[in-house]
Every structure is written in structure tokens, then in C-alpha cells.
Amino acid sequence: MKDQIAQIHIACKQHIGQPATPIVRDGDRVKKGQLIASCQGFGANVHSSIDGTVTTVSEAGVSIKPDAIQPLEYVKIKETNDHLEAIKEAGIVGAGGAGFPAYVKFETDLQGGCVIVNGAECEPTLLHNIQVLEEEPENIIRGLKYIMEMTNAAKGTIAIKPKHKVALINLAKAIKNIETEETKETKETKETKETIGRIEIKYLPDNYPAGDERVVVREVLGVELEVGQLPLAVGAIVTNVETVKRVREAIDLRKPVITKDITVGGRLKDTLGMRGKVFLEQPIGMPASYYIAQCGGYVLPVGEIVLGGPFTGIKDEEDSWLTKTTGGIFAAMPFPVAEYQFGILACECGATIERMRDMVAQMGGTVVSETLCKRMVEHGGRFRCEKPGECPGQTETALQLFRQGAEAIITSACEN
After folding, report:
1. Is the domain 8-66 a CATH 3.40.190.10 member?
2. Which of 8, 245, 247, 254 could staple 76 via S-S, CB 3.0–4.6 A?
3. What is the rounded average pLDDT of the residues 212-217?
């Protein structure tokens, strides 16, 4: 642990559902992997990512002062042959989105359906999932196989863009090697011939938002989900690359979720002009400022700090902390001075109306009109896109905003 890290902060709510309840007190000594906040009902366990001393405990989270020397070993979750129980004990949540508890998602019977690993990583700058596919393809395949077994899936698919050639080659080799191992282990019994070889690679379009769950299902299965319809409706589950990686670790290594893979980019000295710098296996609870320093600090001028991808990430501060769902840290350009009257054209594919209002305010502009993409429909108290990734064209909508007094338009519509 670097000297400049005085403490880390591990949030009790890093997932959809109820926050975990702290089970440690101020002054307690904790070890890496130790349970520090337990799941109550629909939620996820939270573990310490370091050895250290608890300095503050609140409903929001646990702060820990790191020991000067950090061990490689960690406290393992309890022994179990039940894969779902291991996933729950490890506190695994969806690493690429809102943090849905994985044990709930995988506690289903797909009745011969399909588990899809979403390897799109279509937000600019983000690269860590692709690097994992390049460097750890066997682990992803094994994790996928575990999920297929748990959900009674007949097929597993890794969805990826064809431009990621190294990842594609390494995945194909890993699939072949694992299938060969399984065949040898069972001496090519009839049963094995019928069950192996169920993992395939499918291509996604190289556009934004190719990683949207409904886009992935459409491209992989050829099925257009209705607004609000989950992949389960067509016998599928979609899961993130890192989530699959954590499943493999929980089952094979009895490792709780104590680290996160991230990409750091933007106006930083070591990433300027590059696509982003990947940091794998980083302790959860580390401050964003640490990674900004690791990338050489800011290139001035600099604007917002965005956590997540540049398109859908949220504005935050450099003293924010890594969680199980943090995908990236991005130092943005300052907003230009644009004292215009703005129209806002909102779509589900990008920033929210609230986020775009804030952008306009930071530019010194005024919002005079707002509207939604014509493919947006209301569902469950929010507006959703009928066909994400397939823009219907916005000329008519833009003209409407101009007629309402807009001098400029800010939009969150998709790339197409």
C-alpha cells in the first residue's frame, strides 16, 4: 500500500437493494477478505480489501487505516459445494452496471437457454474488460461454464466486437483447450460429446451503445426485447465480463469481492492522447485521487472528474472511492463557455436530462426547451428507448427545439 493512502473507505451500499449492515467497530483490526458488513435480505456482503485498523463506522460505510505491509493472502469465504451460496458469500454483484446481486440473477432455470457474456465495452476510454479477455480467457470460460451449470443453460456466448482481435484469438484458443480437457477427462463418452462445445463467440456492431443489454440480446439471439422486458423472457441472462471473473474466483479460490478492475483516462499526463490506462485488481475503497496521481496528475486545464464511462458516467470528485461497480475514472476537458439558449434532446442511450441541464449550467447557457427522442416511451415511471442503438433520425425533433427558441442543442442520442 502506497504511503500517501491514509485510509480507504468501503461503502455499505455498492449494489441494488438494501445496504449491508456493518459488523465491525472503531478500533477493530481487520484482515483482507474479512466480512465487515453483512447482507440483510436483498443485497450483498461487503468485505475488507486490506489489512488495517477500522477508524470510522457508519451506516454509509467503513473507513480503514491500511497497514504498511499488505499480505497477498486473504480471508477465504466458507467452504461450500453450492455455487450460488459461494457467490452470495463472496458479495458478487454486477460489475458493469447498477450492481444487481449476482446470486439472485443466477438463481434461475433457463431451461436450456443461453448465458451471454457482454464484452462490448463500447464506452470511450474503457479497456479493462477487453484486457481481461486477452489475459485471462480461460478464467472467463470457466466462470461462464459455472453460470451455465447453475442456470441449466444449453449454450454460452461471449459477445464482443471484431476489432478486438487479440481477445478473439485468445478466447478461441481457450475454448478449444478447455473442450479438449473435458473430452480427455471423460474419455469422450456420449454424454460429454453432447454437453461440451456449447460456448461460442458472437460479434457485436462497433458502435454505441452496442453494450446495452437489449442490443446484445438482439445481436446475439436475433430477438427484439420489448421495452421493460428482461432477457429472461427469451431464455437468456446477460452478464458482465468482470462479474464472470469474480464468479470463477469465488468458486475456485473462495475469494470474496475485494478488488476492482478499472480504466483511468482523460486529461492526465500518462493517458492524454491515449485510450486509457488499465489498473487490474485494485482494492475496493481506494480514492480516485490515487489513480490520478499514478497517471502523472492533471494536464491543465481540466474540468470534471467522471466516474464510469465518459458517455454515461456520473460527475464526482477526486476524493471519491472505488466500489464494486466503478468502471472508470475520467478527467474531462473543461466545458466551453457557451452562453446560448439551449434545447435538450434526451435519449436513454446517454446522459439524463438532469445531467444535461447541469452541463448547460456549467457552460453558462440557459435551457429554453426540452424534448425526448421519438423512440422514447414511458415504462415503469421512466422513459425507455424502444430500439436502443437504432437512431430514428433527429431532424424533425431538432427543428422543433429551434422553433421553441433554442440556439444550440445538447443531446444524448445514440451514435447511429
Report:
1. no
2. 254
3. 94
